[in-house]
Amino acid sequence: xSDYVSSTSFADLPLSDELRRGIEGRGxxxxxxxxxxxxxxxxxxxxxxxxxxxxxxxxxxxxIPILERIPGGTRKASALVLCNTxxxxxxxxxxxxxxxxxxxxxxxxxxxxxxxGVQTQALRAGAEVxxxxxxxxxxxxxxxxxxxxxxxxxxxxxxxxxLSAGFYEEVTRILDHLPPDRQTxxxxxxxxxxxxxxxxxxxxxxxxxxLSGDVFTVEHIKNVIYYVVDQYPKPRNLLYxxxxxxxxxxxxxxxxxxDTELIQNVLNRNGLDAEMLNGDLPQxxxxxxxxxxxxxxxxxxVATDIAARGIDISxxxxxxxxxxxxxxxxxxxxxxxxxxxxKKGTAISLVSGAELVTLTAxxxxxxxxxxxxxxxxxxxxxxxxxxxxxxxxxxxxTAGAAFEAYLPLMQDLSAREDGKQLLAxxxxxxxxxxxxxxxxxxxxxxxxxxxxxxxQVHKEQKRAxxxxxxxRRKPRMxxxxxxxxxxxxxxxxxxxxxxxxxxxxxxxxxxxxxxxVKLYVSQGSEQGWDKDALAAAxxxxxxxxxxxxxAVDLKPRYAYVLVQPGSExxxxxxxxxxxxxxxxxxxxxxPKKR
Length: 594
Ligand SMILES: Nc1ncnc2c1ncn2[C@@H]1O[C@H](COP(=O)(O)OP(=O)(O)OP(=O)(O)O)[C@@H](O)[C@H]1O
Ligand SMILES: [Mg+2]
Prior knowledge:
alpha/beta, Rossmann fold, 4 domains, 7-stranded parallel β-sheet, 21 helices, 20 strands, 45% helix, binds adenosine-5'-triphosphate, binds magnesium ion
């Protein structure tokens, strides 16, 4: 059985209409196997210990049945979910909020680093579900702002971590505050045997659900190692690795905070877009960086194990281990940040002497098969680097302004003694600014896409309203549409109004701004595209620079693409070219006319 698609459908599960709509709202059409497996036991009130691989939808697996079980509208803490990091608590609370959207259930995230006062106020107002990190949750219990007398369900997400030495005392202290007849649920991708032993103290006759038997590897994640070359410093090894692999985007995991800072700086100095995430950063900064990487606006997030467990980034192509973690199970969680819900991913690790122990443990205990690749030699790395810069320069030239006036200067420069230095300076200046412009264009594109999506929602809402009005006022509508300038039809103001509602519903809510052109493209995710790959292929097919594509709204069978004005003709002209062996169709998207 696949780890991602179960043979049960949501229709087979005894779901309330509220939850069904919440699930639909998340875009889930079929439950994943873990969601199908735990639904019954949780709904029946059983305690559960569940292991299911990374990225298989465990959050909704416990989320759906607990939201189903707890009564809405009480504003009393009926369920408590504990997570190991602030980022995960926030993410889980967002998923539960979305699933509970149509039920009168409020979800609050309570975690350290965020202002206490705001959380206290929210807790006073009350909520049915509390999601939090143990330290802050316990603070609120102590201060009396969080009352758990009515808590019927407790969840430990990343349960093995929550019951490990670092968290054990805090977590069990919280569990001791809960009613003894509560239901307790433990979820993780790794459930070591000793945890079951330990859990017997806190669980009552639990049902243990271990999916995928003893197979720990995620099928779609390729595991690759590079042995560190000692002739040059380790950060240079990483740079060479990145030259060879050229990842779309990645989390680069480091074992220490100092390393995250070092690597962030090394990558930035080498023109790569990187930001660090570690426990030293203020919470606001942590959320900013996490937001950027989740929105696909950051190429490299250099992180400690804060980001190792649970964090869901839907389109992360690579996980890179600058160093291997000491604990082999952490490796499984780290690499599980890619390859989610059946997508493909690559995990690459730099391995040196002491880490061979972890490597052997991973091979022996978890059956991971590593593909060994070789770092490029300094000369190879240099030529890879040069090729990439050349390509960037050429792409920019194709799209850029006329430059011929500078040719005489170029001739002069090449004859001068300091010509090379001056030219190198000009290049450095070009690349810095060009990358900045590209980053800004990407960010603007995301904003445009968001505004475009908001527009779509408004359009849908108007269409729905217009639809109602059309239904009720159909005869008038028909009359009005038969009369050009219908509002003038014998002073019948209502028919004029009805017509204008109906018409507006078929057109964009606001006129398309002149800073972008929206194109319809005949291929989508079902052809195996992700946003960046489709953008790159389209730009190539239309011989346009990649930056001319501002945003991609990928649907299963087609995509809407926002491009810079002026480039649309080239994209439309790419119609008929073969992309993934299928002829491409590109059209300027127009509002539908009936
Ligand atoms: N039934 C479903 N159909 C499609 N996508 C789903 C479904 N359920 C969950 N997802 C999506 O799958 C992704 C992974 O889900 P989730 O984060 O819950 O995985 P997980 O098993 O908890 O992973 P980890 O072990 O890393 O914490 C999320 O983006 C989620 O929105
Ligand atoms: Mg999870």
